[in-house]
Amino acid sequence: MIGHTELILIVLVVFLLFGAKRIPELAKALGKASHDFKKAKDGLLNETEEMMNAAEKKAESGDNVKKNGTNAEQD
Question: How many CB atoms lie within 10 A of CB 14?
Answer without folding.
Answer: 14
